[in-house]
Amino acid sequence: MFQLARGVVALTCACVALVGWACAGTPVEIREKSQVGACERVVIELKAKGLFREGPPPGADAAGASKKVESAQPLSLQVETRLDFAERVTQVDDVGRPLRTARRVYQAASAINGEIRPSSASLRPEVAILSATRREGAAIVFSPGGPLTRSELELVQGPGDPLTLAGLLPARAVASGARWTVEDATARGLSGYDVLTSNGLEAELEEETPARFKFKVAGTVKGSALGGEGSITFRGSFTFDRAAARIDQMTLDRDENRSQGPIEAGLEVKSTLTVTRRTVEVPAELADAALKGLPLVPEPARLLLLLDPPGGKYTLLHDRDWHVFWDNTRQTVLRRLEKGLVVAQCNLSLGPNAGKGRHQDLKQFREEVRAALGARFREFLGEGGVEGDPAEGFRHKVGVRGREGDLDVIWYYYLAASPEGEQLVAAFTLSASKMETFGAQDEQLLASLKWSMVDQKEKASP
């Protein structure tokens, strides 16, 4: 009798061990679940090669520039990015999926090479602690340590974010061989598109073992990034760790064609995106004591970005709808994008030093504005000083109404000068129909102006 009982127990244990195989045809629910306090190490890498078609510089003749762009030979492009961070869950949703996390970044870097101007980017140590929140399926990332630059944001908020991966999984119980369409929000996150117009990305449960599920994923998504329309064809795989209840590895080949938009040039790029996740101990920087008191909720003021133009003479803060279209050591051009359309432009130009405590004569500045607009000028709307830190010097605004072809246009011109006499001219351009919705964004941007040489003098003073 005892031997029979042992045999039954052994047979039962064997069946439990093989349940993943024995029940391969039985539908099973596959869900990501986590708990507040859980911590993992995440590495996201993207390697891309392809072609890049440069757009015209600001101020170029539109018709002539368009023909030059179409006839210009595309330039070779090579991109490598790597993001390595520990992530601790600080909030979950009603079904146990991570909703908000705190992150400690160990490495965030990119390198762009090829026939275009080489460039690189990395994350400053003072903003290496991040907060990430899933909102409408997308990951919103900021640093409690201070505003990120646009290049830093692109490093830490991009395709493959772990908060967006759960939408790869089926919404219902499935068996091996089942196929389903990936959630739109996840397809958008994997593409990097702002807007998705069609989603043909499908996943398939390929294999099941006691330890994990293995999936294939393939298909094409269409949409736009910063107003440039494009499509990406995906081919790849991912695995789900059953014990950890999460997608722990993903490799996706991406084949993208994107037309030139109002901010970025056109692309023909093949890339490979990889994501790995594993459980780790909570690092000291993400312990309860370290996170206590840190602002982790993405309120608008915390999402502002730092504009630090080439040359480093000044900085500004702006919201995430402003994008750098062009820059060099003397001029930076920002464009404001809403729903893929440019609704305003801001030209920031450094002027000659006027001498300590001085600035250009205001009457002369006003006349130069009128002369620059020429036949487009209709009337001055008013002028006067604007708010800002008095320690950062002088700021003056001139409003103008005019015509650009058949369009009623508003221009806001600013003359700013540091205490040492460095000058900055800012020119905002927008349609008169957008004046009300644009509001005081120009004044808010100029109110944040800080002159770098002023900061350096303050740091150097005893």
Outline the structure in words.
This protein is of the alpha+beta class. The protein folds into two domains: 39-55 and 71-291, Lipovitellin-phosvitin complex, beta-sheet shell regions; 305-460, Mog1/PsbP, alpha/beta/alpha sandwich (Protein Transport Mog1p, Chain A, 3-Layer(aba) Sandwich). It contains ten helices and 24 strands. The longest helix has 16 residues, at 2-17. The radius of gyration is 27 Å and the shape is elongated. The model is unreliable at 1-22, 61-69 and 454-462 (pLDDT under 50).
Specify the number of helices: 10
- Spans of 5+ residues with little confidence (pLDDT < 50)? 1-22, 61-69, 454-462
Oligomer: single chain
Supply the helix-strand structural class. Answer: alpha+beta
Number of domains: 2
Tell me the β content.
Answer: over 45%
Number of strands: 24
Radius of gyration, CA atoms, in whole angstroms: 27 Å
Q: What is the 3D shape?
A: elongated
First and last CA, distance: 90 Å
CATH architecture of the largest domain: Roll
Please give the CATH class of the largest domain: Mainly Beta
Helix fraction bin: 10-25%
User: How does the major sheet shape up?
Assistant: 13 strands, antiparallel
Give the averaged pLDDT, no decimals.
Answer: 90
Named CATH topology of the largest domain: Lipovitellin-phosvitin complex, beta-sheet shell regions
